[in-house]
Design a protein that fits this description.
The protein is α+β, with helices and mostly antiparallel strands and about 290 residues long. Helix content is about 45%, strand content about 20%. It is globular and about 70 Å long.
Length: about 290
């Protein structure tokens, strides 16, 4: 959300600008005490409060609320809606912006009519799922090494699903009891595509196209078929590919990191240590002794 304030300007502390995020943008912002006007925007926006509580006077979409704004409180500002916030102390918020098309696409994936999913202004919403998504996005902004864009695609998709559920009264209940899965052919084609593109940036929409599914449907079917979210599967395949190169080739670790799709060598090392309990150096030394 573009902020134009009457008091000193808000300061962006962390941002997704410059990262390969396709469907979502995020900023972690320090806002000085005083009144801030938020103009209408072409995108939907969500703000999540961090830090100590502040007394706030909020006006948005014809609503006004005076409240104690606490950590985890969420405000939703639909596209085209403006508002103002007046706080009695400095505060920090995580601001998420995403297009109307994301919400429409996910609504269609869920079998809902996009024109019936009306996102309304909400102030001081408490929702554990939205809060968890916010924390995950903030953690990625703080990380020295950004996550794979596929992970952000999945978070954006989960965000849209939850917002649609809150706007339409909850999730639709499946009629059958069995969990749907990818067909054997879909799973084979998809895993082969992942395997041959580990050195590339992978996005959810691209994987969905390979499987002939919507992004939302792929996320569910992939987890049901493999027991893992698709981004975790990709990370594990990157790690296994890197380990194979370390034990069967003389490639230096820096080249292996690139070939396996890691941002750089230290990113590979930290991921391998987390998943395997070993560093690249330990793996390569053991391989040399055999």
């Amino acid at each position: 959300m573009t902020l134009s304030s009457i008091q000193p300007s808000p300061q962006i502390l962390l941002t997704s600008a410059g990262r390969a995020w396709n469907v979502l943008s995020a900023d972690f912002i320090h806002i000085p005490r005083g009144r801030v006007h938020v103009p209408g925007s072409d995108t939907h926006r969500l703000g999540m409060h961090f830090g100590p509580p502040v007394n706030a006077d909020c006006q948005c979409g014809g609503r006004r609320m005076r409240r104690v704004q606490k950590p985890g409180d969420i405000d939703i500002i639909p596209a085209g809606v403006e508002g103002s916030w007046e706080d009695d102390a400095d505060c920090r918020i995580l601001r998420l912006s995403f297009s109307r098309s994301l919400l429409d696409r996910v609504a269609a994936d869920l079998g809902r009519h996009g024109d019936r999913v009306e996102l309304l202004p909400q102030l001081q919403l408490r929702d554990t799922r939205l809060e968890a998504i916010g924390w995950a996005i903030k953690a990625d902004l703080e990380a020295d090494t950004p996550s794979d864009p596929l992970y952000i695609d999945l978070l954006a998709n989960a965000l849209a699903v939850r917002l649609i559920e809150t706007a339409t009264g909850g999730p639709q209940r499946p009629e059958g009891r069995s969990e749907p899965k990818l067909s054997a052919r879909q799973l084979r084609v998809l895993t082969e595509f992942i395997e041959t593109h580990l050195d590339k940036r992978l996005h959810l929409v691209d994987l969905a196209a390979v499987a002939g599914l919507s992004a939302t449907r792929l996320k569910t079917l992939f987890r049901n078929s493999t027991g893992l979210p698709v981004h975790q599967y990709v990370i594990r395949r990157r790690v296994e590919h890197a380990r194979a190169l370390m034990t069967t080739t003389m490639m230096p670790a820096s080249e292996i990191a690139v070939a396996a799709g890691f941002a750089h060598q230290s990113h590979m090392a930290s991921t391998m240590r987390r998943l395997l309990g070993e560093t690249p150096g330990e793996i390569m030394r053991r391989a040399a002794e055999i």
